[in-house]
Specification:
Blueprint (H helix, E strand, L loop, with lengths): L22 E6 L8 E4 L3 E4 L4 E6 L8 H31 L4 H15 L9 H7 L26 H5 L4 H30 L5 H6 L1
Antiparallel strand pairs: 1-4, 2-3
Helix pairs in contact: 1-2, 1-3
Length: about 210
């Protein structure tokens, strides 16, 4: 007989977290229970040779859990707040002519934070969403990659998949990095050309 069942854990974000290995689920059977096989999930099959069986449980991402769903909604709003913060700082510092070093330092720290979950850390699952807004610093702007959306289903390993950092999103970072490189080259070339020109207006010359 096949028994289909669904389990909901009270604290799913604690599963597979405290130990640097997967937690285990144990099932004890009542005396007299007639058993031959039991299935866990859709893929794994475990033959019961005794009255107790166990199955490994990886880190569980149950986004129907109230706490984890709340953290995810906060992360989505913080994603746009982070874009606004970087954009406003860039504009304000540029207009005030005090240099852009503060915003570059901010972006540098955000990039360091963005990579933290990828290192083999066992963070509480909803904390992955807390770090996700910092991906803005890598110019990862879309959940689904335009044009090459098939790359959104490819991941380097499970840590990248937990963080939703697909090959498509890395492609976004590469593409926008190339765009920024071209813009910087054009701006520097433009400034160089104007500095070599014989500009009569003193204010324009000073501005360039």
């Amino acid at each position: 007989m096949t028994i289909n069942f669904t389990m909901v854990f009270e604290e799913p974000y604690m599963i597979g977290l405290l130990l640097k290995k997967s937690d285990k689920l144990f099932i004890d059977l009542n005396d007299g229970f007639n058993y031959t096989k039991m299935f866990f999930g859709n893929l794994s099959e475990i033959r019961l040779m005794t009255k107790t069986a166990n199955a490994a449980l990886p880190m569980t991402f149950d986004w129907t859990n109230e706490k984890m769903a709340l953290m995810r909604s906060i992360a989505k709003n913080m994603y746009w707040a982070m874009i606004g913060l970087i954009g406003s700082q860039f504009i304000m510092l540029m207009l005030r002519r005090v240099g852009l070093l503060p915003v570059w330092i901010l972006i540098e720290y955000l990039q360091l934070i963005a990579f933290m979950p990828i290192y083999n850390f066992r963070l509480i699952p909803y904390l992955y969403d807390a770090f996700k807004p910092s991906l803005v610093s890598h110019m990862i702007l879309f959940d689904r990659t335009p044009i090459y959306d098939e790359l959104d289903n490819d991941y380097f390993n499970s840590n990248y998949e937990f963080y939703w950092l697909s090959v498509g999103k890395l492609f976004q970072a590469f593409f926008w990095g190339g765009v920024i490189l071209v813009i910087i080259f054009i701006l520097n070339l433009t400034v160089f050309i104007f500095t070599k020109c014989n500009i009569q207006n003193a204010k324009c010359k000073a501005w360039f």
